[in-house]
Design brief:
alpha+beta, two-stranded antiparallel sheet, 35% strand, twelve-stranded mixed β-sheet, 14 strands, globular, 6 helices
Length: 291
């Protein structure tokens, strides 16, 4: 295992990343990385597992998304005409047998220092934000993960305490979701409460960013087939999406004002449908101190 004790415990990451961008060929950072993602929305229950999360890194940008969502959106985009009517074709038939999975996607633009979060839940909610550099603290632990020699760091970032493992064998500042800013690809990351886990399973070269272009253009242009696309700054987008996930009637109301989603309880009385537990990736409390 390689030990690099010349690195300071607190990384001067802005200077280091600027250096890396000068000395590393652009194609070295053009990657498609596959991760597993585990998330525990209810602390009393087990994890939801997503084994096919993809991180596409190309031309200074990255997109973190679910492979099954990409397939679903691709089929959806060619299964309806401009009026929203389903066409009778092979794609439409396959669409009826396909389900989306994660319902969110993260796009990062490193040169511009911005990111965009896309959420799909009855409606599309888009949130725009400014990238924050995590204040990573380098630790003295080393181990092999997924065949890579890794070293770990910790950071309090976006309202959670994170531990991440990175490898210098893949020279990229990228990582899953909004985790980034290291002198090597993030191979594994988890929060201190063990609610959220990302783990790399494979890396391969990426020659183009056509998926990123398709997915981002598709979600923004979806308004051509549905008016239910809402774009906010990231703080408001997170609040709206969290409210949608915790209140199904609110989500339905955004599509059709006045709509209430009701069901019968054990006595036969009509009551609002209860949404399943939802844990925001960025804790709600984090936004209370943000302007």
């Amino acid at each position: 295992m390689r030990n690099n004790h010349s690195l300071p415990r607190t990384l001067c990451l802005f200077a280091l990343l600027a250096f890396l961008c000068q000395v590393l060929p652009a194609e070295a950072q053009n990657l498609r990385c596959t991760y597993t993602h585990q998330k525990k929305d209810d602390p009393e229950k087990g994890y939801k597992n997503y084994k096919d999360m993809l991180l596409d890194v190309c031309d200074g940008r990255s997109l973190f998304y679910n492979e099954r969502d990409f397939v679903y959106d691709s089929l959806f985009s060619i299964s309806f005409d401009k009026n929203g009517s389903m066409l009778k074709n092979e794609a439409a038939e396959q669409l009826t047998r396909t389900r989306s999975a994660l319902h969110w996607m993260t796009e990062m633009d490193y040169p511009d220092g911005t990111f965009t979060q896309y959420y799909k839940f009855l409606q599309t909610v888009i949130g725009n934000g400014t990238l924050e550099m995590p204040a990573w603290q380098l630790m003295d632990e080393f181990k092999e993960i997924s065949g890579y020699a890794c070293r770990n760091l910790t950071a309090h970032y976006l309202g959670r305490d994170w531990t991440a493992w990175f490898t210098e064998e893949v020279p990229s500042q990228a990582g899953p979701w909004l985790l980034w800013g290291l002198p090597g690809l993030i191979v594994e990351a988890r929060d201190a409460d063990n609610y959220i886990l990302f783990k790399l399973t494979s890396v391969e070269p990426l020659n183009d960013n056509h998926r990123a272009v398709f997915l981002t253009d598709w979600l923004r242009s979806y308004t051509n087939k549905s008016p239910n696309v809402y774009e906010y700054d990231i703080k408001e987008a997170e609040a709206v999406y969290t409210k949608m996930r915790s209140d199904i009637s609110f989500a339905a109301h955004m599509s059709n004002p006045g709509t209430k989603v009701m069901t019968k309880d054990e006595t036969g009385k009509m009551v609002p449908v209860q949404a399943p537990p939802y844990l925001p990736m960025i804790p709600t409390e984090y936004w209370k101190n943000k302007k």
